[in-house]
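Hey, can you fold this one?
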Amino acid sequence: MSPEKKSAPSSDYDQFVNWDRRLSREAPLFQKLFDKVGAERVLDVGAGSARHSVMFATWGMQVCAVDPSESMLEEARRNVDATVDQVAAAGGSVSLMSAGFGELAALGLDPFDALICTGNALPHVGTTADLRRALADFAAVLRPGAALVLHLLNHARLLESKPRSISPVVRETDEGTKLFLRVMEYPEGADHVDFDFLTLLKGPDGEWSVEHRTSPHTLLPPDVLVPELERAGFVNIELLGAHDGTPLDPSNDESVIVLARKA
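Sure. Predicted structure:
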């Protein structure tokens, strides 16, 4: 195996996720929620490759996808361009903008009917003070009664059982066979967990190479996140363990879906 180590490209994200399966599983929850609040304008924060944004636009919605990473925005542009005819036929749109947590209100956009932050993006927020600013910023760009959807790993489970990895994923790509590994480290006394993202590639020559990056994720269990949501002015907060509406099992569910409304 080659000792090469470098940052994984943003295209790995779309290869890692089975988007057809994921979106078909998640779509009914979003449709039900958006219908409930009469959503027409949606803000996708930490949008990554904009797969959710494109789906919403094919429902006829006006979507703004924001992400602080230019490489992810490039991937998002490719996905938006590939679906431009389908989106136009539905009467929807996707606009892409560069912004991070706490920078949304400064964009000067009209209020949104719904805001989503999925893909485990929110734990990149930093400190508790940064979380507080981010949630206040979320509230600032939403109209009263608007919907908020967060989707992240279930940190209550991480803190309780300290799993060391997430199930590996193997994909066949144009470059060769890719093996995606996620390994977690729990620094003693820290308010974060370190994720080591490793992508192993078996090329045409049969040799393996590895790309690696480490990302600290701020721990946001419900007993931290819910009070901060309430402080930011969100109400009707629900914690789900799956997109079928099953309530969260803090000890066992891998992820948590948070639904809330702006007061």
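The radius of gyration is 18 Å. Let me know if you want another pass with a different chain boundary.
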